[in-house]
Amino acid sequence: MELLDRATARTWLATAVAEARAGLAEGGIPIGAALYGADGTPLGRGRNRRVQDDDPSVHAETAAFRAAGRQRSYRGTTMVTTLSPCWYCSGLVRQFGISRVVVGEAVTFHGGHHWLAENGVQIMLLDDAECAAMMRAFIEKNPALWHEDIGL
Ligand SMILES: [Zn+2]
Fold it and tell me: Which of 2, 19, 26, 61 is catalytic?
């Protein structure tokens, strides 16, 4: 598969960040994601809605995945997320054969992106300061909610 250029990855990350910010404004956990097709078409976007929907299964990645509807194949698709994907979302990436994951940051939470890389998923870690600052501020203000979300 072609390597994704960082400029495009940054543009796509901005969509995920916008979702995360919208979630924060709703009183939710600020994690956003978007799924892009092999040709770069936006397929779906979403955000963590644990608080908003009282539903722990709505993570940013699953929300974006569901918003994309049925796709015949996920070959060549890219999941962009503001935060390293948890095991649940890493499992989703492997289950459906999503080819690539762009990760905003993995400082505040280290999820399954190494495991994905070991299993042939192309990972681009952007180490984005804005994503990390947003999560840090949120975790500091809402430690209990954050621990509930990551299952601690
Ligand atoms: Zn997740």
Answer: 61
Residues 30-73 have pLDDT tens digits of 999 999 999 999 999 999 999 999 999 999 999 999 999 999 99
Residue 14 CA to residue 8 CA, distance in Å, equals: 10
Q: How far is the CA of 123 from the centre of ligand 1 (A)?
A: 16
